Amino acid sequence: MRRIAVNSIKGDIVINEPAWIKLSGDFVSAYGVLREEMPMTEWLGGELVLQYTSHNQLIAIRNGRHIIE
């Protein structure tokens, strides 16, 4: 499990404010608006793209690269 925080999320899911995602392996297992500081969360900043694969699994992309756990 890896939790990441960013300034915003674009793509198939849109959150135009600070947000977090939880990665389990290669896929996003949870996401939400960042309302308060969360323990064990890596701040990457910038924009993250969430995109559904052809198998309907959600992946995270940053600077054109697939982010994994």
Give a verbal description of the structure.
The structure is a single chain. With 69 residues, the chain is mainly beta. The chain has strands at residues 2-6, 8-11, 19-24, 27-33, 41-43, 47-52, 58-62, 65-67. The strands form 2 sheets. It has a 4-stranded mixed sheet with strand order 4-3-1-5, with no helix packed on it. Strands 2-6-7-8 form a 4-stranded mixed sheet, with no helix packed on it. The chain is globular and about 35 Å long.
Structural class: mainly beta
Strand residues, percent: over 45%
Shape designation: globular
- Topology pattern, helix = H, strand = E: EEEEEEEE
Mean pLDDT: 96
Helix content: under 10%
Low-confidence region ranges: none
Number of helices: 0
Q: What Rg do the Cα atoms give?
A: 11 Å
What's the end-to-end separation, in Å?
6 Å
- Main pleated-sheet profile: 4 strands, mixed
Strand order of the largest sheet: 4-3-1-5
Number of strands: 8
Layout: helices, strands, pairs:
Layout: E1 2-6, E2 8-11, E3 19-24, E4 27-33, E5 41-43, E6 47-52, E7 58-62, E8 65-67
Parallel strand pairs: 1-5, 2-6
Antiparallel strand pairs: 1-3, 3-4, 6-7, 7-8
Key traits:
69 residues, mainly beta, four-stranded mixed beta sheet, 0% helix, 57% strand
